[in-house]
Write a structure and sequence with these properties.
- 2 copies of one chain form a homodimer.
- Chain A is built from 2 helices and 3 strands; from the N terminus they run βαβαβ.
- Chain A is α+β, with helices and mostly antiparallel strands and 79 residues long.
- Chains A and B meet through strand 1, helix 1, strand 2 and helix 2 of A and strand 1, helix 1, strand 2 and helix 2 of B.
């Protein structure tokens, strides 16, 4: 079963990668971009048929490894 | 207006970062993870009120800068 973990920087945490992308877009002539934030999208294939079990396994993985919960938040979706 | 661009490696393209995460999860005792793929999640704040215009601007940005369409595909969503 596919589970998607979206990891984003918490608001207030500086995002230099996003800033760099913003400047690059400006350089290419895209004027209207006021903010860019970059996160990670982690697709897991889990050998589990129960949606809730797959989701809770992914939540445990996110807390222990996939996200640094000091500066990042995560959202789990089972598409 | 917020626009989210999800950039993923095309299928068939090797993903060493995903492999490393898979091995790390195995090391932590998560046995059921058969595959891990890592992508990027780029949140753009665009000074535009029309959803379709914001989407097409993001599509243009994705093609020109945000995604390497040789090895990556992207999806745009306007939440």
């Amino acid at each position: 079963m596919k589970v998607v973990v979206a990891v984003k920087l918490k608001s207030g945490v500086l995002d230099p990668q996003g800033k760099a992308i913003g400047h690059a877009l400006e350089g290419l002539g895209y004027d209207g971009v006021t903010d860019v934030r970059v996160g990670k999208l982690i697709e897991l294939d889990i050998a589990e048929t129960d949606r809730e079990k797959a989701r809770s396994a992914a939540e445990s993985m996110a807390k222990r490894l996939l996200a640094n919960t000091v500066v990042e938040s995560f959202e789990i979706s089972v598409p």
